[in-house]
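User: Predict the structure for this protein chain, please.
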Amino acid sequence: MLENKFVELGTFNRLNPAKRAIRLIFGMALIAYFIWQLPKYGVLITTEFPLIPGKWIGVAILFYFFGDVFNLGFNRRWGRWPQTIFLVLLGLAVIVDFILYGTIWGPPAGWLIFLLQQFTAVMIGIGFILSAALATPG
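Assistant: Here is the predicted structure, written as structure tokens:
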């Protein structure tokens, strides 16, 4: 039988210890990813980066959550607009790369992808760690 708890608007249930541990682990993993990426920024501006398939998985995951950083983290209701704006900026960076370097991948696109990864990883990592510490959902 389906049961529903009727609580006041704006209240939430505290996380149980298992969910807190999961959030703490994911938060620490994202912070570790952030720290691990710090000395690797030089790889992003080389032409070898687009050929590393494993790196694009991380970029795709962090791009997916990029909009949530603004929607949840900064309490803005922008939907998927941050991702759209990022794609426009990435398109402009690719054009600049092609004009300046003769290739579609160069320092402007590399730095933009690097900043996306770092910003998203650190913001979501801090959010998960705070969520685990405060036992709040989110």
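The chain is about 70% helix and 0% strand.
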